[in-house]
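SEQUENCE-TO-STRUCTURE ENTRY
===========================
What this section holds: a protein sequence and its matching fold, both as plain text.
Tokens: labelled as protein backbone structure tokens, with as many entries as the chain has residues.
Question of interest: how does this chain fold, as expressed in backbone structure tokens?
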Amino acid sequence: QAEKKAKVIAVMNVVEEPARAEAQKEEEASPPPAPQQPTDPASPSVATTPEPAVADAGDKNTSKSADDEPEYEDGRGFGIGELVWGKLRGFSWWPGRIVSWWMTGRSRAAEGTRWVMWFGDGKFSVVSGARGGPGGGRSPPQGVPMVTSCPQVCVEKLLPLSSFASAFHQATYNKQPMYRKAIYEVLQVASSRAGKIFPACPENDETDTSKVVEIQNKQMIEWALGGFQPSGPKGLEPPEEERNPYKEVYTEMWVEPEAAAYAPPPPAKKPRKSTTQEKPKVKEIIDERTRERLVYEVRQKCRNIEDICISCGSLNVTLEHPLFIGGMCQNCKNCFLECAYQYDDDGYQSYCTICCGGREVLMCGNNNCCRCFCVECVDLLVGPGAAQAAIKEDPWNCYMCGHKGVYGLLRRREDWPSRLQMFFANNHDQEFDPPKVYPPVPAEKRKPIRVLSLFDGIATGLLVLKDLGIQVDRYIASEVCEDSITVGMVRHQGKIMYVGDVRNVTQKHIQEWGPFDLVIGGSPCNDLS
């Protein structure tokens, strides 16, 4: 039992990566999985209008009768712990796990809906079970910061993981790292349950972790497409201990999803060795309490805020946050680049400006600003109660629009526009040889050029060359329209040599008329023609 628990720990209840954020998701009308849609957002988590009230910790202890009530017993299947595919409009079918409302810390799911934890980002995405989705009434009144959160998944939009052959979308797998990560995670759980063992790839210090994981992922996908043999769908059923809604699970280690390279979870009963012996892509999970502790140390002046990642709390800082005083880790940088400027249908950014995450976000009331800030970052960095104060403020100008530059520990950088530009600037030009630059020829040494114009039209090419001050020695044009030829002859006083249909021009003609300094090859009906 302890060994099974350790395997479950590795994947279940994945801690939200602060850099991963929630992209807009709405319910789709058609349940069948057939036509797949590629997905551009990083994951299928969404933010919509206010969800059911958060379940208070005290209520869990006092309302024992509510806890004892059976869950998901509406006769529609999909019980706690089952691996499923979920479908929401605009996204490919995405793998997830049915979880109890107790795990989410929120209210019970309505009849016909399920709480689903999505693989890939470990978040609890939700969508209303009613037809038409939760889109209505999302936009807040003018100037009022909007709080968004997550809805529940309708049962009609779920498929068992055994439908892998019809639900898996190869195009999305090739395009989206988050989708590859989700497939890897769900197949890790599936293979563990089914007792399927895949041959280990030889690995040494020079082995590329991403390649090893990619090979293993392909093996698992082939196994899934083949029907999860030999056990089949029966082998994917959750063990009895995972069906317990009050079973507590923790994730002790996680992997940074760099280039879709995800090291497998630690084997059961094998403790982690010293971090100096681990590969650099493996790091400890930085949970919210760790970030709170580090921020507290900054407030007590025991630590420099530039030494911690203000997005997630990691101490593995590789650069500075482009907008606010503080550090940023490589993982959060990757997510910032990917998610920072994704927008919802209402025109606001989908993610928190600080951490590119957040379940609940406050939207700026400035008409010229589309930024949002999550409640967690606001209360942690600005001060306790700052989020509630912002909600009551009308209109609320965000921390990028306000006249002040300092809000508690949240200090806006004075040179943030240039820093943001440099943050997104690519350095791919360093991978290539510098382009050859030829010095200009002095005007007195320039010679008239010879031009061959195909599909010449009304001699626009010659007109433009004259306007540019370029001397033309000879202009040979291929044109079949008599009216266009007449225009050219009249406008340019017979300086154009017309040679008829371009299909009759041979190599011999080119050698006879050339050599040419410029060939204009605009096709018929082209703007240049």
Q: What stands out?
A: The chain has a mean pLDDT of 70.
